Amino acid sequence: MRKEKVLSLEALIKPLRNSIKGRREKAGAGTVKREKIQDRDNTGNNIKMKIERPQRREEINKEKPDNIKETPVASRTPGQEGKWALVLMGGGARALAHIGVLEVLLDYDLVPPIITGTSMGAIIGGLFAAGYLPPELEKLGRQLSYSRLSGLRRSKIPIPDKLVDYLMLESYQKRLLRRIGVKKGDLLEEHLREMVDDVLIEELPVRFGCNAVDLVSGQEVNFTSGPLHQALRASMAFPFVIEPARFSGRLLVDGGLLNNCPIRLARELGATRVFVPDVHRPLKKMAIAHFDSAFIMVHRLVQVVLADSTESKLPEADLIININPNVDTFDFTRIRRVVNLGKKVTLENIGGIKELARSAAG
């Protein structure tokens, strides 16, 4: 039976804002500098980024961080209800369907004990784990659109047309690399830092992980500890749109380039059952005449890579629901429609999701 919730967006956001403000005033203008370290797994392929933390897990469990909001998520502890995981793939605007998925899961009291994600899926999953509820996430989705974060400001033009038009009007070599994706000043990290302050991944009330790709080594990097905002920022560094993140001598970009469906990471975090909402759009043939600009060619190349990194991983999931929103990666003009589609498909499959959660708890 679904539970009706009456939510005030301002009432939900205000406690977190006040808590973050209080922490900053208490700490002063400076921030605590933490030493960054890294290690490899036995295969040497998967590098986990860690950041030294001031508290051990048992100490964290005794005292919940004051900027984790009191929500259905924050009331849970890892492993409390069985080790099933929700894996949120990237996809730009299409990934906003995950918000509808989470809304239905909350309605049916199915809070995932483990969440992993990449790119926009990491943003949604990480903020949800930190206490942001679906209505807030939908509002934030509008604020985190690539148009605002890339430095392009002509907001009345649809995002894909805006980027193509920009390439036609300006020198690709001199302007694109400086203004779109290689510019100084990181709006994305500023937004994320404002939203979650210095919350560490290991402080979250659910187990969370996300990934990125290191351009230096060509390897996938998993974030399972350390500042949440840094991990999310690295995972969403979409090539040529958002500047790569620089951590510990690494140059990190969108994790979806190598693994757009981090199922294996979810299992490393303890999941015995994995649920994946599929929001990727299968590739279709394009007419040669459409390849008339550098941006179209680069965008198509990224589409090919993302499709392969999604479809090669999906068979590892225990339950997949096909949402597949019919919107472009950069089209943030139909967010409500995409969120509603996520809700609709999740409701149609709620029986299977319940069974997966029960079997994991088994």
Can you walk through the features of this model?
The protein has 362 residues and is an alpha/beta fold. Helices cover 41% and strands 14% of the residues. The protein has 14 helices and ten strands. Helix 9 packs antiparallel against helix 10 (228-235). It is globular, with a radius of gyration of 20 Å. Mean pLDDT is 75; it is low at 1-17, 27-70, 74-81 and 150-185. Residues 23-77 are annotated as: Disordered.
Question: Which features does this protein show?
Answer:
362 residues, alpha/beta, Cytosolic phospholipase A2 catalytic domain, 10-stranded mixed sheet, globular
Mean pLDDT: 75
Q: Quickly give the structural class.
A: alpha/beta
Give the CATH H-level superfamily.
Answer: Cytosolic phospholipase A2 catalytic domain
* Approximate shape: globular
Indicate the CATH class. Alpha Beta
| Total beta strand runs | 10
* Range of helix content: 40-55%
Per DSSP, what share of the residues sits in E-state strands of 2 or more residues?
5-15%
* Number of helical segments with 4 or more residues: 14
**Any idea what the radius of gyration is?**
20 Å
Concise description?
By secondary structure, this protein is of the alpha/beta class.
SSE diagram, text form:
Elements: H1 9-27, E1 36-40, E2 47-51, H2 57-62, E3 84-88, H3 97-107, E4 114-117, H4 120-129, H5 134-143, H6 146-149, H7 159-169, H8 172-179, H9 187-196, E5 207-214, E6 219-223, H10 228-235, E7 245-247, E8 250-254, H11 263-268, E9 273-278, H12 294-311, E10 319-322, H13 335-348, H14 350-361
Parallel strand pairs: 2-6, 3-4, 3-9, 4-5, 9-10
Antiparallel strand pairs: 1-2, 5-6, 5-8, 7-8
Helix pairs in contact: 3-5, 3-13, 4-10, 9-10
